[in-house]
Amino acid sequence: MAPPPIDLNADLGEGFGPYRIGDDAAMLGIVTSANIACGFHAGDPEVLFATLTAARAAGVTPGAHPGFADRAHFGRRLLPTTEAEVERMVAYQVGAAAGVAALAGHPLAYVKAHGALYNLAAVDDGVARAIARAVRAVDPGLWCLVLAGSRAAGLAEALGLSVAHEVFADRAYLPDGTLVPRDRPGSVLHDAGAIAARIGAFLRDGAMTAIDSSRIAMPVHSICVHGDTPGAVAIAQAVRAAVLAGGAVLAPFARR
Amino acid sequence: MAPPPIDLNADLGEGFGPYRIGDDAAMLGIVTSANIACGFHAGDPEVLFATLTAARAAGVTPGAHPGFADRAHFGRRLLPTTEAEVERMVAYQVGAAAGVAALAGHPLAYVKAHGALYNLAAVDDGVARAIARAVRAVDPGLWCLVLAGSRAAGLAEALGLSVAHEVFADRAYLPDGTLVPRDRPGSVLHDAGAIAARIGAFLRDGAMTAIDSSRIAMPVHSICVHGDTPGAVAIAQAVRAAVLAGGAVLAPFARR
Amino acid sequence: MAPPPIDLNADLGEGFGPYRIGDDAAMLGIVTSANIACGFHAGDPEVLFATLTAARAAGVTPGAHPGFADRAHFGRRLLPTTEAEVERMVAYQVGAAAGVAALAGHPLAYVKAHGALYNLAAVDDGVARAIARAVRAVDPGLWCLVLAGSRAAGLAEALGLSVAHEVFADRAYLPDGTLVPRDRPGSVLHDAGAIAARIGAFLRDGAMTAIDSSRIAMPVHSICVHGDTPGAVAIAQAVRAAVLAGGAVLAPFARR
Amino acid sequence: MAPPPIDLNADLGEGFGPYRIGDDAAMLGIVTSANIACGFHAGDPEVLFATLTAARAAGVTPGAHPGFADRAHFGRRLLPTTEAEVERMVAYQVGAAAGVAALAGHPLAYVKAHGALYNLAAVDDGVARAIARAVRAVDPGLWCLVLAGSRAAGLAEALGLSVAHEVFADRAYLPDGTLVPRDRPGSVLHDAGAIAARIGAFLRDGAMTAIDSSRIAMPVHSICVHGDTPGAVAIAQAVRAAVLAGGAVLAPFARR
């Protein structure tokens, strides 16, 4: 029996004004879904439109990628924020991205939170629910892309949303299935061969190797690769090759 | 025969963070439509949500009020901007406001450009079309509220959008039907009685008295009153009373 | 023997673009020192210049009032920030305010941190030292205005800076001499008579009554009054009257 | 007789938060003066401090590089701004950069306006004077670096400031000695050999070849090279080699 299809996603459109991060053009040739910054942690109307237009041309499925309003720290700081504020800022950002996506003729299919907001949602039920409520209000047909196995998945499903689980190709895991924080040694893997091998093993076994060598079973619909680290494109290509070598078909998780 | 219904609109939700402008609560008891700032010239997700929630409670129809990204000058400076940039920034802002409106359970019914963008659209066909294209892309059911008699009306209608014409209760007109710029003497009227009398005469005759005493025939579906000038609430009440005294019914122009 | 002179300080210049907070003109007739926002939590070059010019005309001594870059929350959220970042952002803000003060012909005499940065400095020695290092680098003749009795005083003095201690007229104190956080009941006092009586008693006894009725001895060179709360001007006038009734002379603490 | 010394200057520190533009490390090995962004069109306290620290280590003289508050367009749009606003925003930015420079132990020696503000000052006497007034107020020992032969030079000198004239290695000139605007064809030269040859000829003859092949005599103390165009580093090295080949000594124009 053939393995289920697998999606590859990456954060794209993270420039602002004259600034760019990562090689979006190369990544659009590798991934099947693009998490596009909405103008709070990165992105602006021009970058959003250009990224959505390029994703459309490349046949890559777009998702909104809302984050904290913190350009100077790229949405990676945990800012003190109430659940009500999360709900409103996610509705604003998803709506804004949906508006530009309509203009680009490439409608959004899903939402994935960014950076510190993503990490918070993986461990804080109230925040996970606030995000899901905002997504449902703006468009109940949008999927939520969440940390594989996290409580956020069930919370979004309880609100009637479709949910996809993702694993991170180049991030180390703690034994509880959460990511090793970026400020700790070993949190980000850099060797393309080792990354591809780990993903290949995971797809065969359904269990991820954590930083203490323990094994964590987790569901998976999508694999996140990064576009902004050294060697990012080569790593993403190696992950793609490993998925295909395992016999899986690459396809977006979100179908509308 | 009864006169056609008339709408009263005002700019609301023009605060930001800890700041507020105008007495929104009082204005929501007077107007029938609220132009709500979208976060570029004023407003933010919290102010948007609070204003939409209050408008819902007051039975006031909400519209998006996009402007230039220029908080420091309240969207009143003409910033060098291409038509393509206008299209994208309007799609972003209308989408964002629509997202928060969905969360507040009070969907947007129309779009009215703000400040320098509004004035530009009244005289620049390319900009007027860019705004209309953005509105149509985000939601073709949204009305456009434009300067009464301006070319922007026909341009939006040509794209299939519903259009409403508005006159300004407290702004002086040039003989060509455009507004006297704010930096010229006499551009803004301040006497509530004179303002109400001018509107009463206009509703009877269908012609507005310009700054040189010439008379300009113009269509009207809505009258704009301001919430942020000295005596704003008293002026708005006087205008409302003048409309009712003329026998017209007050009702939102946009019906979805 | 006459009591030592007392300074009255308030946060001023907290507007931004079209926005204003508090009645700065009235407060400049009451206080002897003005903590002027530097453009990060509030303020901008125009507001800075106008406030410095008005302070000069009123004979009020100006100080820089740096805070977190968080306009949307008025600098009141504790943002994750390294000591090195604090040092650089304080040097930037104090330098900027000094530049505009030079243009206004009214040089800065002191620095007081704002909001969450102030509260953090009162309990975090590393942050208190970072602020003091930045002040010393920009201008070692600037005084530091700090929470009366806090460790920040000694840390700044150890770097060779002159230090003034301040008490808050309208804020409740915990028994350890820190302020009751703003989100707790009773943190802010609102009754002008009670506030004035508390300050009068403090000036007589040298001890402040805490929220649990315990008494805390604290040094004082300045009393902080607020300009942005309901009844602020009346409260500030009552505090001023209480100081004068106690026989003290009102005078700026910082002499250059 | 030896030719007078020549300075090479470039715009550096034009990053923001996670973003970087150009290869600052390479450019610091080539130039003798660095125009450092002050946080309005680009830059922030962290980038400012890092750039000043690196300039100090490289023995490169730092200058403040103030511009319009327009990150999204990198200070290249002409924003409607009064002379008074220019004065205040330049005082703010120069003061801020001076504050961070003090912290980095590498004091500013000069000021050069950026982008649209620079171009405006070259043709608008009121704006040129406003910039000079702000510089003089903040620190009358700062030099002004201006377009060679422009009226801005005499206006700054009339206020008692020291002035240096600069030519642009890679920008085409109009016959009146102003730069060909960036949106016109041929405005920016890209061939390192041709650029170096043009500068070599200019240093021999004292006259620059304009876009219509006419020759414009202009004084020169500094040559501006860019760090953010394709091949920027190679071009800057070629210009440096051409200066040295002509027998000139490379040295900062500003000596304090």
Notes on the structure:
The structure is a homotetramer of 256-residue chains. By secondary structure, chain A is α/β, with parallel strands linked by helices. The first copy, chain A, is 39% helix and 15% strand. The first copy, chain A, is built from eight helices and nine strands. Chain A has helices spanning 24-28, 45-58, 83-104, 115-123, 125-138, 151-158, 192-205, 232-245; strands at 7-12, 33-37, 61-65, 110-111, 143-147, 163-168, 207-209, 215-217, 222-224. A seven-stranded parallel beta barrel of chain A has the order 1-2-3-4-5-6-9. In chain A, strands 7-8 form a two-stranded antiparallel sheet. In chain A, helix 2 (45-58) crosses helix 3 and helix 3 packs parallel to helix 5 (125-138). The longest helix of chain A is centred in the middle third of the chain and has 22 residues, at 83-104. The radius of gyration of chain A is 17 Å and the shape is globular. The model of chain A has no long low-confidence stretch (mean pLDDT 96). Chains in contact: A-B, A-C, A-D, B-C, B-D, C-D. The B-D interface holds B 69, 72, 77-80 and D 69, 72, 77-80.
Gyration radius of chain A, to the nearest Å?
A: 17 Å
The proportion of strand residues of chain A reads: 5-15%
| Subunit organisation of the chains | homotetramer
Enumerate the spans of chain A where pLDDT stays under 50 for 5 or more consecutive residues: none
Strand order in the sheet with the most strands of chain A: 1-2-3-4-5-6-9
Q: Give the ordered list of helices and strands of chain A.
A: EHEHEHEHHEHEHEEEH
Count of helical stretches of chain A: 8
Write down how many β-strands of chain A occur, each being a DSSP E stretch of 2 or more residues.
9
Helix % of chain A is 25-40%
Biggest β-sheet of chain A, characterized? 7 strands, parallel, barrel
The chain-level mean pLDDT of chain A equals 96
Please report the two chains with the greatest interface, counting residues with C-beta closer than 8 angstroms to the partner's C-beta: A-B, 26 and 25 residues
**Shape of chain A, please?**
globular
Spatial gap, N to C terminus of chain A: 26 Å
